[in-house]
């Protein structure tokens, strides 16, 4: 039995976010009933490449997202149909809702009304800005939300001689869907909840790197200019390759790999990014002289992150994905599609069943639905179903759960952070020799007191956690870990597999210590396959999965998003963990969850391989243009930015012919804009260059605030391209309390981003404790294991535990 067998979800959403949320639930065994208006979900007719969808057929992306679901048709203008939908809700456990269909926007099916009528129902609402706040009804698209989030400029993506570029491929939609699924599962035992998810807030967490906390704590932004990562994605002799330097050691090793040991300067005042940019031409020349496979073999030997640059046409042929069986065949229409974003042992996920035709299950559900009965609804062969009334829940979903957090950097800690914010006791394990990598990337000089406690990134990812140091290279450190594991419900780690191999900690070992433990492993490329032990940072994951391919300008190499690969992995790992928790609740069994970063990335980039397999189309990057709106672009406005540059922009995305008419009116109906051929999206795509020129002339005479005020009031999706550290200036985030001030023993109180959804009922605040100091809870946790004060002191004297890193030793080039 899959973990969500018997769990029933009504899908009142349209578009990718809600569809992906309910797909993840269906993969876990939930019965998902998609309610559509008579004309069907618009996604049925969608193709990013513009492929012709025959009458009565469905677009391949819809088919992928709708696998294993039921489809019923209801016309909300018909009172009996509205009663039918309400009957479905009465017999369900959860409903996923977004605007966009006549059913969802019927007055009886607003989130608040559904939750009021069915208080035991979990209602998950997905909207651009949230259900509350001054922007709750404002127009938005994936593109304009990226601009508002700061994600377009947040990590310095793009080149200074052009407009910045957004992350291609609708990744924000998938992020919102993954967060919505996790929130729905987290709330399922609370006895009903209203979950109000903001896509703006999910983009802030997925596309920016705690910029507000960084700026407030250190007095400077993470990056203040656009510059390419070097080498990054570069042209080799026979194709593109991605080579990254995420740490100083990787830069030193890159110097050695390219035959330039003389570039290594451990005392340089420049960051490794600045040093790499200074040597860009020499590095690019070296890459051009080598074949892709030779570069990758050499980089792997030097432990330098690397990956091929995948797209829809080549990704299924990459050896690692072939060996791991990363792609499967759609059970209905036969195209290639990614497998699930996580794997489990024992197997918990349901094999995908064919997607439904429009209204395929309407009559069956009409026969089995009893409208108006709050306790009865959909029936099975055993008769009407009576919902279990759960016990009175704790305020926080994960209270009483203990998590051993053996993670570092961004991906792993972002998974365990959500557990900590929602009530779990999370023990973050580091060592003094190898503390969490985010402690080391703030640029604080080692001469500063307690410099390792002053990282905004570590603080942003680790509030509410406890801190324990253990030297796992020592026998005594491993022995203490063996004593700690039986006290923990969940163990999460995100090292390359060889690291845990070296200390002998696999799932069999964990089960020998605690048979019902759940272990979540988050390797970059998985636990097997030829890339198994390759170092994995966000940028190489994004390149290998195809996300980078769609980001950037068509006449230049792709840009690394340099962001989404990590938090996307974290939220998908959490979804896999929540299924494992439900399985253990039902069976008492422990579970291994393999949540490879690249598997999660393949799922949010699914459209590329699907479009190529189904239609023979290779999706291409197009700067700031995109498949869902025309015009869509960034336009320069008047004014000087905070760094003294003429670099102020607005994002505009016209997603419908009605919005175009509104834009034309807002511009004062200039003659060029009233041309009949521009009244349709097809005509506007043909004339996109003309529109860009004319609209750019109009925006150049106005400030960004003026443009937003004029166009947004007319209902046109528009946004300022925000510097990410200015997120606190957005009134919508203030109204929703997205940022919470967090005090700290070493640092001044600073704003910290919270979760991207609000739960009703509560909590009203997520951050309860600051991120732990290094080894802050050693005494508490080791005393709990039965150690005496003298034994703890001896462990510290022998550097098995500690509260500060050792003095810095000269870095050595490794081969």
Q: In summary, what is this structure?
A:
The protein is 34% helix and 13% strand. The chain is an alpha/beta fold.
Supply the helix-strand structural class: alpha/beta
CATH class of the domain at 229-341 and 398-627 and 763-815: Alpha Beta
Approximately what portion of the residues adopt beta-strand conformation?
5-15%
Strand order in the sheet with the most strands: 3-2-1-4-5-6-26
What is the CATH architecture annotation of the domain at 229-341 and 398-627 and 763-815? Answer: 3-Layer(aba) Sandwich
Q: Describe the global form.
A: globular
CATH topology of the domain at 229-341 and 398-627 and 763-815: Rossmann fold
Characteristics of this structure?
7-stranded mixed beta sheet, CoA-Trfase_III_dom_1_sf, 26 strands, transferase activity, 815 residues, globular, Rossmann fold, disordered C terminus, formyl-coa transferase, domain 3, alpha/beta, single chain
General description of the model:
By secondary structure, the chain is of the alpha/beta class. Among the domains are: 229-341 and 398-627 and 763-815, 3-Layer(aba) Sandwich (Rossmann fold); 630-716, formyl-coa transferase, domain 3, CATH 3.30.1540. Helices cover 34% and strands 13% of the residues. It has a seven-stranded mixed beta sheet with strand order 3-2-1-4-5-6-26, sandwiched between helices. It has a seven-stranded mixed beta sheet with strand order 12-20-19-18-15-16-17, with helices on one face. It has a three-stranded antiparallel beta sheet with strand order 7-8-9, sandwiched between helices. Helix 4 links the parallel strand 4 and strand 5 (122-127). It is globular and about 80 Å long. The two termini are 48 Å apart.
């Amino acid at each position: 039995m899959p973990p969500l067998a018997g769990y029933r979800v009504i899908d009142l959403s349209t578009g990718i976010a809600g569809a992906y949320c309910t797909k993840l639930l269906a993969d876990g065994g939930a019965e998902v009933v998609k309610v559509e208006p008579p004309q069907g979900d618009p996604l049925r007719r969608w193709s990013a490449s513009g492929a012709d969808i025959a009458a009565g057929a469905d677009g391949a992306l819809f088919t992928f997202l709708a696998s294993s679901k039921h489809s019923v048709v209801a016309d909300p203008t018909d009172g009996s149909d509205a009663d039918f939908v309400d009957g479905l809700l009465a017999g369900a456990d959860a409903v996923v809702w977004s605007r966009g269909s006549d059913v969802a926007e019927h007055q009886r099916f607003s989130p608040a009304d559904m939750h009021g009528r069915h208080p035991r129902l979990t209602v998950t609402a997905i909207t651009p800005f949230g259900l509350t706040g001054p922007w709750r009804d404002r127009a938005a698209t994936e593109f304009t939300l990226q601009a508002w989030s700061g994600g377009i400029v947040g990590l310095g993506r793009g080149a200074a001689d052009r407009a910045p570029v957004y992350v291609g491929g609708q990744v924000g939609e998938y992020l919102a869907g993954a967060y919505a699924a996790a929130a729905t599962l987290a709330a399922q035992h609370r006895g009903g909840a209203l979950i109000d998810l903001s896509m703006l807030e999910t983009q802030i967490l997925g596309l920016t790197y705690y910029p507000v906390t960084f700026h407030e704590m250190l007095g400077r932004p993470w990056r203040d200019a656009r510059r390419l990562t070097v080498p990054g994605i570069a042209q080799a002799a026979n194709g593109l390759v991605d080579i990254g330097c995420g740490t100083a050691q990787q830069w030193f090793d890159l110097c050695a790999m390219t035959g330039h040991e003389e570039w290594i300067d451990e005392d340089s005042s420049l960051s490794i990014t600045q040093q790499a940019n200074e040597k860009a031409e020499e590095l690019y020349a070296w890459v051009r002289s080598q074949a892709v496979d030779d570069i990758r073999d050499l980089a792997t030997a030097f432990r330098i992150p690397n990956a091929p640059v995948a797209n829809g046409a080549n990704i299924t042929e990459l050896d690692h994905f072939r060996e791991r069986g990363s792609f499967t065949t759609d059970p209905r229409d036969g195209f290639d599609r990614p497998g699930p974003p996580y794997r489990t042992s024992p197997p918990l996920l349901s094999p995908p069943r064919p997607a439904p035709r429009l209204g395929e299950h309407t009559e069956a559900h009409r026969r089995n639905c009893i409208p108006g009965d709050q306790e009865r609804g959909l029936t099975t062969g055993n008769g009407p179903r009576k919902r279990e009334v759960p016990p009175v829940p704790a305020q926080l979903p994960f209270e009483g759960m203990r998590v051993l957090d053996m993670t570092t950097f961004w991906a792993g800690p972002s998974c365990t952070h959500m557990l900590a914010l929602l009530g779990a006791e999370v023990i973050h394990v580091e060592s003094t020799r190898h503390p969490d990598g985010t402690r080391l990337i703030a640029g604080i000089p080692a001469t500063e007191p307690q410099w390792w406690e002053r990282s905004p990134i570590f603080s942003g990812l680790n509030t509410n956690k406890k801190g324990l140091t253990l030297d796992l290279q020592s026998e005594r450190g491993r022995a203490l870990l063996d004593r700690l594991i039986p006290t923990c419900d969940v163990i999460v780690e995100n090292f390359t597999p060889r690291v845990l191999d070296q200390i002998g900690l696999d799932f069999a070992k964990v089960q020998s210590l605690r048979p019902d433990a759940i272990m979540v492993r988050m390797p970059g490329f998985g636990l097997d396959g030829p890339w198994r032990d390759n170092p994995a940072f966000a940028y190489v994951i994004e390149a290998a999965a195809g996300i980078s391919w769609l980001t950037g300008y068509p006449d230049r190499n792709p840009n690394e998003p340099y962001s989404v690969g990590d938090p996307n992995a974290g939220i998908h790992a959490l979804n896999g963990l929540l299924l494992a928790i439900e399985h253990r609740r039902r069976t008492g069994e422990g579970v291994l969850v393999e949540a490879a970063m690249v598997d999660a990335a393949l799922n949010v980039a699914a459209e590329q391989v699907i479009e190529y397999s189904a239609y023979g189309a290779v999706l291409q990057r197009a700067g700031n243009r995109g498949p869902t709106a025309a015009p869509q672009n960034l336009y320069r406005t008047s004014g000087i930015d905070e760094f003294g540059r003429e670099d102020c922009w607005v994002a505009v995305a016209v997603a419908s012919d009605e919005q175009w008419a509104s834009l034309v009116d807002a511009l004062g109906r200039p003659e060029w804009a009233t041309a009949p051929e521009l009244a349709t999206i097809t005509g506007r795509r043909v004339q996109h260059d003309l529109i860009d020129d004319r609209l750019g002339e109009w925006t150049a005479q106005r400030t960004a605030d003026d443009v937003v005020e004029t166009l947004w009031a007319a209902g046109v999706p528009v946004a300022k391209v925000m510097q990410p550290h200015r997120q606190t200036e957005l009134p919508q985030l203030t109204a929703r309390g997205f940022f919470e001030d967090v005090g700290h023993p070493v640092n001044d109180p600073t704003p910290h981003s919270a979760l991207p959804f609000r739960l009703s009922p509560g909590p009203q605040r997520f951050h309860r404790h600051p991120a732990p100091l290094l080894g802050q809870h050693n005494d508490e946790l080791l005393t709990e294991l039965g150690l005496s004060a003298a034994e703890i002191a001896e462990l510290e004297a022998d550097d098995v535990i500690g509260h500060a890193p050792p003095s810095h030793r000269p870095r050595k080039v490794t081969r």
